[in-house]
Amino acid sequence: MMRNMAARGLGRSTRFRFWLRAGLSALGFMLGVLVLPSAVTAADSSRRPNIVVILGDDLGYADLGAFGSEIRTPNMDSLAKQGVRFTNFYTNPTCSPTRATLLSGVDTHRNGLGNMDEWTAPNQRGAVGYEGHLNERVATLPQLLNDAGYHTYMVGKWHLGKTPDQIPRARGFERDFSLLDGAGSYWDMTNMTSASPLSVFTEDGRYLKELPKDYYATQTYTDKLIRFIDANRGDGKPFFAYVAHQAPHDPFHLPADWRNRYAGVCEKGWDAVRKARLNRQIELGIMPPGTKLAERMWFVPDPIVLAPEKRAVLAKKMELYAGMVENLDHHVGRLIEHLKQIGEYDNTIFIVFGDNGAEGTDLAESIAGTPGTRDALHFATKWPNNKPENWGDPGSYVGYGPMWAQVSMTPFSQYKGWVAEGGIRNALVVSGPIIRRPAGSINHGVMHVADIMPTLLEVAGATYPAKTAAGQQLPPLIGKSWGPMLAGREESPRTARDYLGWEIFGNRAVRQGDWKIRWQYKPFGKGDWELFNLANDPAERSNLAKEHPEKLRHMKALWNDYVKANNVILPSRSPFETLEFKLPPRVPDDEGYPPLIYKQQFEPPKDMSADSEPNQGHSNAERDTYKDN
Fold first, then answer.
1. pTM of the predicted model, to two decimals?
2. Is 95 a catalytic residue?
3. Whether residue 618 lies in the annotated active site
4. Which of 3, 402, 483, 485 fits as disulfide partner to 37, beta carbons 3.0 to 4.6 Å?
């Protein structure tokens, strides 16, 4: 029934009747407003706050100035200064699963993204929870907020389904301008594969035949959202805006005047930049004193040993990425400034974070790296503009690789697609009228993207129904409201007994309190469970499985509980199943090894240096004898 309703666009009266029969009465709504915690009712209850969720695509933990970056992000930093930074916030390891959890409040293995649509394994096909799109068995945040009296807007990347019953308009957004695919050009409709050569966009529920003139993704998304907001100004209703930017996901496309703002900044290499970011994180209080960096990936070279030209080319990739992040911040600033001009800024909640770890995989190589394939031909014809001087232009494709992804995820291990901290921990900023903690403060409570839905329903005075109108049971929300924590009454929404679980591509993890176990494919993992104490070792350098077998058994029992509760089907195939045979054998990252390539030219003491004296020890006849012999 929900699918049929979605196909009709979830008209206002239909939505109301649906949720009314599901148990949301006008009386219940009013009572919900009256009993909200003080963190929520701090805003005038007669004028509920606007809500803006800003999602950076593959934005790294350490990419904002407020989290230790050298990249200039004054607008998002200003939100951090007025609000709160959270250092223990978790998403899922990849993009569409995070987005599905954000919008449903339900675990990925139940909301349709038990695996990414692009990588659904043979044994997962047709299984409930593995549809590859946000399924009809969940209620969505925009649907519930719309029924609670909010305008609902979306701009940016959707990646949760393309058919008419799956697009943003069908899942509760009144207005949208959306890229339905997972990636693509920032300049036009060029997509990634020969089977799907054109990206698909919708605007207000209609599929677009062409993009606006002068289209540039980050700018156009911001322009559209401002117009959506202005179109309904003055009607007295608050709005929910889901700003799912494509930036800074590769390809690194940006206007010419943004491309050289960090020229030369990164030529000192990834190790030096990563160390500098960690030092700033410790100074800011993001990381505790004594925090160590995760090991440099064993297949990534020490930049010191590279030739200057090679190091400069690799540095340019990071410099382009930095320009992407600063440009993203610029357009966030445009939205902030507009809300100030129309008098809505002070009554707006901002939630800012990245959807997963930074991208360390070369997507172009993984898609089109085999000569003679149709995708290799597609890239050669549609993405041919790849000389360094053309990077950023239409038709160019550049990412920045594992070395710089580790910089973005300072100080953590690994990156997107993996369940190490570098794949799942993200920087989070929350600001606005619900905050009752000191401005600019930092919180270390354990949080999860699934928490956003119950938090925002509480803010809006909305209720999560138990069943659909057809009587189908809705899955329970797995998140915890941040209301008491944002009010300053708690330090974390979770107790020591609560745990979080993850699984994607067969990689899996559980965190409870300070302890974490993870199982990952070789060579990023061991093909077995590892145990870490994140309080002492956030970089996951020390596997404690042998030292604490009882803790390991306890954590594995939690994993089994997570599997049963969330319909986890481990995949029969994985994108990482052959990775062990493609990468060099894993070895430790011992600084300065081997000494051979680091030993500097020996300089003898000056007082022991001398010029060679002329060789006068032999006659000409003797020298001739030596030659003859």
1. 0.91
2. yes
3. no
4. 483
